[in-house]
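Predict both folds.
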Amino acid sequence: MKWLEAFVQQDWAFWFSRTCFLIYARLFLDLRIEGQEKVPREGGLVVVSNHFSSLDPPVMGVAIPREANYMAKKELFEKSPWFRLLILNLRAYPVDREGNATGAIKDSIRRVKDKQVAIGIFIQGTRNQGDAEALDGAAFIAQRAGVPIQPAAIWKEGKKYRVRFGDPLVPEGKSREEASRLTGQLMEDIKQLLPENKRPAEMNA
């Protein structure tokens, strides 16, 4: 299986699969994307989105209009061997939401700062303890790498998938206060990007 995982992560395999999945999403998931023009096409970037289904990683992966790596909870990599290959192929990398995420954060900083790629981080859309940690981690990564952080929302209307991007936020320092400010702004922006009837009750509190 290791050789197959290495095979699907080659550049040509990524772009081929990304194109195929985008076509599938357009035709069979009726994927519609808003605000792609707001996504910077170059340089490091952190994209933060809500999360509601196991298809979110590949859907968001093809919605971001550039090559993007994205942080996904480790359980998705254990869902099935074939799903694991799919999300590895689409540049996902695992994070343990129940354990120590230090390694994933360091890896994320290296990707956005050294490789100048976009990374995506998913939250549940509510401000419980795990989501606060995810958001604070996203703000920390953007601060340490010196890159913008961009809110995004994903939801379904019936069987139709929708993705909407907001305006990027620029960190104004590396203090804890700035991380807190970014976290609060992200929560508000993601809430506003979601249709009102799709916002979890906690986001409307």
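Second protein follows, with its predicted structure tokens after the sequence.
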Amino acid sequence: MRKLAFFRLVYRASRLLRERLTATGLVLGALTGFAGAFGLDTEANLAHILFSIGTCFLVVDTLAVILLRLRAPRLAARRYLPDFVTAGEPARYRIEIWNLGPKPAGTCGLVEELGQPWPEAEALAGFRAAVATNRFDRRVGYPAFVNMLRRLRAIEVKRGNVPRLLPGQRTVVELAIAPIARGLASFQRLSLVLCGPLGLVEARVPVAVERGKLPVLPDRTPVDLPPTATHRLIQPGGIALAQHVGDSEEFRCLRDYRPGDPLRSIHWRSFARMGKPIVREFQEEFFSRMALVLDTAAPYPFAPGFERAISMAAWLIARPRDAESLLDLVFVGDRVHRLTAGRSLGSSDMLLRVLATLVPTPADSIGPLLTMFERYADQVASIVAIFLAWDDVRRKAVQRLLARGIRPMVLVIEAGPDSAVGDDAAFTGILRRIALPAAVSPSLAP
């Protein structure tokens, strides 16, 4: 906990410096600091002269930026964010800006300030063990901390430029988005960047704009599944469309009343027009339904196996399907969820948005998931289960399905090469092991 608090302090201090000084200003500030340290003895060297010159430059530019901030223009803006972006795929969005002040606004920079979630100590320890690629990172862990912060922010927004605006004038600026990882990006504040005449110091002036959120969908890892025979199963109660409520069936036709027909089936308008009882006839609904069971029992956020499982699930959800087919996504969050896409029940985008914000659950969450997995197995035509481990609990659940004549496709994500583990003979044809790379080395650039 102390190390995590120290990391947060160092990160906030470095971020504050990057927001106040330009790249040139950071270099000059570092040189000035070194010159001040070596120039304490003014008779031994001339480093104190460099310290004085550097300090004068920084002070003069700071005073100039303070004056610019006092005379900063008053602007307002409106963001036009896309519905979502996908991790690893660059995107752009528009910002409409207008000048509310009585004076012209000069050319200046434009930056987005994103919300920054902070990781827990246990999550950071697991993440560091997975991504550390050198001795410094393994012993200290600050590069892994910075990398995890970038993933928690989900995106990076590149700086833009605002042209000169006359009073009341409007303009549209495009900013580039670099999606880093799945998640929900939070746009907290939009600021103008005013730079001093020497190009050393910057100041940020807030722009009036509403906050926004942008879902970042997971990237998609193709899954090579064997062709499965699709068949249609009766759905208890039918598939309720927008006009149906409760236990409903699909309308088929109108016909004459027969003794024993329920009164609620009488079509009263046709009764009044025809002069005899007319009833509505319904038929049971049959659909091709697929279940996708996602194991979320991961040790920490952004675990390689967990992220691979979500990427594979995203590919299965996004692939084209028949308009009459249904897809159930079964996973554990605060409880066991079963979300359906297809027909009028939901879209694939809805399921992908759920995957974007999915977090790991404790190891004992696999029990309720497997219970739901077995309970609804008879209602679906095919099952694809993505597991993060292959232990006795998961193995016995699949064996019980096989005993009932149900053959799911089981994908197990494991660490190490394929040759390190052998396939179970009893699950030949339905079990596939997917090995992760031995070392994961994501970019650690801040």
